[in-house]
Amino acid sequence: MNALKKLFGGNTRQFGMIFALVALILFFEIFTEGRTLTSGNVINLFNGNSYILILAIGMVLVIIAGHIDLSVGSVAAFVGVCVSLFIRDWGLPWYIGVLMGLGLGVLIGAWQGFWVAYVGIPAFIVTLAGMLIFRGANQLVGKSNTIPVPTDFQYIGSGYLPEFGPNTGYNNPTMLIGLLGVAFVIFSEIRSRRNAKKLGAEVPEAWVMVLKLVLISGAILYATYLFATGRPGTSFPVPGLILAVLVLVYGFISSKTVIGRHIYAVGGNRHAAELSGVQSKKINFLVMMNMSFMAGLAGMIFVGRSTASGPFDGVGWELDAIAAVFIGGAAVTGGVGTVIGSIIGGLVMAVLNNGLQLLGVGADLTQIIKGLVLLIAVAFDVYNKTQGKRSVVGMLMKNFSRSNEIKADETTQTTDVISKGA
Amino acid sequence: MTSLNTHSDPLILEMRSITKEFPGVKALADVSLRVKAGEIHAICGENGAGKSTLMKVLSGVYPFGTYTGDIVYQNEVQEFKDIRASEHAGIVIIHQELALIPELSIMENIFLGNEPTKRGVIDWAEARLRSTELLARVGLREDPDTPIKEIGVGKQQLVEIAKALNKSVKLLILDEPTAALNESDSQHLLDLMLGLKGRGITSIIISHKLNEIEQIADEITIIRDGKSIETLNIKADGVDEDRIIKGMVGRTLESRFPDHEPKIGEVLFEVKNWNVGHPQIQDRLVCKNSSFFVRRGEIVGFAGLMGAGRTELARSVFGRSYGRFISGHVYKDGKELQLKSVRQAIDAGLGYVTEDRKSLGLNLLDDIKATTVSANLRKISKNFVVDENKEYAVAEEYRKVLRTKTPSVEEGVAKLSGGNQQKVVLAKWMFTDPDVLILDEPTRGIDVGAKYEIYGIIQKLANEGKAVIVISSELPELLGLSDRIYTIFEGAITGVLDKDQASQESLMKLMTSARKSA
After folding, report:
1. A258 and B381 in contact by Cβ < 8 A?
2. ∠ CA(A88), CA(A90), CA(A93), 5° rounding?
3. Which of B350, B374, B382 to mutate to test the interface with A (most CBs of A within 10 A)?
4. Given this model, what pLDDT does residue A386 score?
5. CB-based contact (8 Å) between B354 and chain A?
6. pLDDT for res A419
7. Looking at the complex, does the CB of residue B348 fall below 8 Å from at least one CB of chain A?
8. Whose CA, among A254, B335, B388, B467, lies 20 to 30 Å from A351?
9. How far apart are alpha carbons A337 and A264 in whole angstroms?
10. Contact criterion met (CB < 8 Å) for B354 and A201
11. Which residues make beta-bridge pairs with B91?
């Protein structure tokens, strides 16, 4: 009993969430009679949720800095429709369209960041206004019509890694990415352990590290196997690849760089940060600008996937993204949260959605269940904060504090997450 | 009024062997307090001695069960579970930080949480009638509809008392009521307390102003290091200020400070004709034409009452982080500096340890190592990437040098005691390697042992050739630590005294009066 408690009594919401995720996957795997962990379903799940997960990455930074962004769905839709029009009406190649879309996202973000950071209007108000403005703008410029995009543009939303190399029966690039991921995880774990030892810091026992590496590597390899053995023509999806790159980049920025530290500092105690020389206005501006940039990207991926932009794209996305971030361990008051945690949170919601769909549960009941999960996840965390015991799981996760040694594909399974407070 | 000096007076309150522990700190150890009905009872002690904690135990802020010992009030053992319960029994505490809502009117504040109702609806006519009467009793001539934010601190204090009277208070507790008041407001308040005594209301007053205590109190209980030392009867025992200080300090003043041989060099840092406006209120100056200088290796004290503008001066110099800059010049090593942001100030070699650790100095979500490097991330970063190994090494080094008590530098700063938190904040600023270090109330809320260590660190920094400015409300601290002391009154520097000329009296005189001579 005690041992069980030690193993499962994780002391942060994120440990809880990894287990919730694994448990959910197993639950649905059993009750859908094996239809959950099939190549087709996992690929679908990724394709259908990548844009929400991308939004969650931007959103967690916004929330760590102590703000919120309600406009992301509308901004995504507006950027989507503009890019569709650029390509259709001006005959631009798809990549110019993508660049212009990203630029438009940055411009919109600068607009919102200006009001938040330099005028001092709460982000809630600014982005509530933005939600109305850009939804209206989407319908205005698109005349509330559906605007199709060419096939080559669709690649960013629904493409797969190409086949090349010898015929192994698997998709080669997917396998390559999986193996690189495993190598990277093992290498960085050993390196950080060596560094910690050199500095005389406390390191977990060797068996803990080995167990951790076996679990993570196993998860990555299993995910790789699923992605590489889909029906012909499918493999690791392009939106998943974009997501993986973003997780790596933003995980790194948030945990290892000066600007990342500053974001946490501003959210944790703005006055203390300012008196330590942090330019909080600049940080707030950048965080809000980045959010709209990523919303633009998510909007384009969605348009690529659905082959056309429409007047109701992105409705409700802000809520999905915000829910993912809070399930993933962020605090409403700012200063707490991780990119990886938010991805896990987003995946919990995605798996729940997908599994309930496979079971044939209606949309009405699905919403009720998702709402309850959000509530329980946060309640669980609040409860855990009053406990604060270290567990085996805590030790497993310890060295991954604020880290990002992860590939997006492995997160479907379990793994290495972490928390600021671990 | 009950007669004094007799030992047969009935007790209204007896606190028996109260012990209260916080994680890692014993704030109160076996404290006893006996207050007679109808008297004014003073509680004296140094900062951090446990006075406020004791009053929080009494008023139910720390509920029954979180402390050990008995509270006997009106001959019954009480088990207050919150402030409401103690107020219901007639015990009202007025905190140093007033609990008034600035946007609401005087009347609304008086009746907040205690609104007179008629069939469930607030009876404003009744409220107005009663508030007019209450305001007359405390001698406040203001329209009850005036918003609290439009009246001064002295008047706000009176509103608090009116609020207490409305709750039919029997035991009124005032925590440092005159700390932020000028002399005439203070006198009015003291007279009012004597008036309340005349109506049979018992008061407990916590104050650092010993002359006031001597003036109004009947008995005095002295608390030191979380223990009750003695209870004296002012008249019977012929108590004077020296006697109180002896009880409070309990040891010779010299031993509170490490030995220090100052090595003072040439002028390093100078501020001239510094004028700063209030951040919100137009036409109000928080710094009036202030000029001062600090020499290399010198520890310079800034003395002033709360609200005199010491912090405002320091923060406005530190990269204009407070108020509206109007005019003035800052020089370091004879060269004029333009410090328009905190970043510039830090880069120019200034450091500022804030007065309020928790709300201004620390991100309580951070751990020790992240806090230590937070003001100088560049030093441990390459291409904007933080080197976490260096971060750990730096934090570990400061932990050893400053002897911070913690299991590891990965511990959250929120878990540390006040003294150790302050050491982490000092480490943070030492790591920026400033030439000029401003310390605002560096030992507030820190126990005596840690204070001694902090003093040692400050002296060591000065001996390294830094210019150190110490702002403090505790005059003994300034006298023991500083080589020179400036006094500030209402935003203006009113004098400067060398260590050997300065005494509590001479400082207090300069701190409470406008400039007489240059």
Report:
1. yes
2. 75
3. B374
4. 59
5. yes
6. 33
7. no
8. A254
9. 9
10. no
11. B171
Q: How far apart are CA A214 and CA B450, in angstroms?
A: 47
Indicate the helix (H) or strand (E) that contains A262.
helix A258-268
Identify the residue whose tokens are 């609020």: B163
Confidence of residue A210 (pLDDT cuts 50, 70, 90): confident
What residue type is B176 in one-letter code? E
Q: Which of B304, B302, B296, B300 is nearest to B483 (CA)?
A: B300
Write out the H or E segment, with its range, that includes residue B486: strand B484-489
Q: Does A283 touch chain B if contact means CB atoms closer than 8 Å? A: no
DSSP labels for B256-323?
GS--------SEEEEEEEEEEE-SSSTT-EEEEEEEEEEETT-EEEEEE-TTSSHHHHHHHHTTT-SS
CB spacing of A199 vs B389 below 8 angstroms: yes
- Whether chain A has a CB inside 8 Å of the CB on B362: the answer is yes
- Is the ipTM beyond the 0.90 threshold? no
**CA A404 centroid distance within chain:** 12
If you measure CA to CA, which chain A residue comes closest to B412? Answer: A421
- Average of per-residue pLDDT across B440-451: 77
Residue of B343, B377, B389 with shortest CB distance to A258: B377
Do A134 and A74 contact (CB within 8 A), yes or no?
Answer: yes
Q: Identify the band that residue B33 occupies on the pLDDT scale cut at 50, 70 and 90.
A: very high
For B386, the closest of A201, A261, A271 (CB atoms) is A261
Nearest to A276 among B374, B386, B396 (CB): B374
Q: Using an 8 Å CB-CB cutoff, list chain A residues near B374.
A: 261, 265, 273, 276
B281: exposed, middle or buried (Cβ count in 10 Å: 0-12, 13-18, 19+): exposed
Q: pTM above the 0.80 mark?
A: no
Higher per-residue confidence, B280 vs B439: B439
CA–CA gap between residue B418 and residue B326 (Å, rounded): 36
**Which among A45, A25, A72 has a CA at the least distance from the CA of A237?**
A45
- Residue B314: the pLDDT is 92
The verdict on A397 touching B (C-beta cutoff 8 Å) is no
Residue A25 CA to residue A412 CA, distance in Å, equals 9
Tell me the two tokens of residue B150: 């439009």
Q: Which residues of A230-263 are buried (b: 16+ CB within 10 A; e: fewer)?
A: beeebbbbbbbbbbbebbbebbbbbbbbbbbbbb
List the single residue in B with minimal CA-CA distance to A267. Answer: B363
B339 in Cβ contact with B330 (< 8 Å): yes
Residue B80 has pLDDT above 50, yes or no: yes
Is B342–A276 a contact, with Cβ atoms under 8 angstroms apart? yes
Residues A251/A337, Cβ–Cβ less than 8 Å: no
Helix (H, G, I), strand (E, B) or coil at B452: helix
For residues B379 and B392, give the distance between their C-alpha atoms in angstroms, rounded to a whole number: 13
User: Cα-flanking dihedrals φ and ψ of residue B475, to 5°?
Assistant: -60, -40
Three-class DSSP category at B290? strand
CB-count exposure of residue B506 (10 Å: 0-12, 13-18, 19+): middle
How confident is the model at residue A410, as a pLDDT? 32
Supply angle C-alpha B349, B355, B359, rounded to 5.
105
| Cα distance between residue B424 and residue B422, in whole Å | 5
Q: Nearest to residue B149, comparing CAs of B315, B277, B324, B280?
A: B280
- Yes or no, beta carbons of A268 and B364 under 8 Å apart: yes
Q: How many CB atoms lie within 10 A of CB A391?
A: 17
> Closest Cα of chain A to B503: distance in Å?
33
As a whole number of angstroms, the distance between CA B14 and CA A313 comes to 70
Task: Report the SS3 class of residue A220.
Answer: helix
Tell me if B342 and A261 make a contact (CB, 8 A cut-off).
Answer: no
Of A259, A275, A420, the CB nearest to B352: A275
The beta-carbon neighbor of B377 closest among A199, A261, A271 is: A261
The separation between the first and the last C-alpha atoms of chain B, rounded to the nearest angstrom, is 49
Say which of A265, A279, A420 has its CB closest to residue B374: A265
pLDDT at A78 over 90: yes
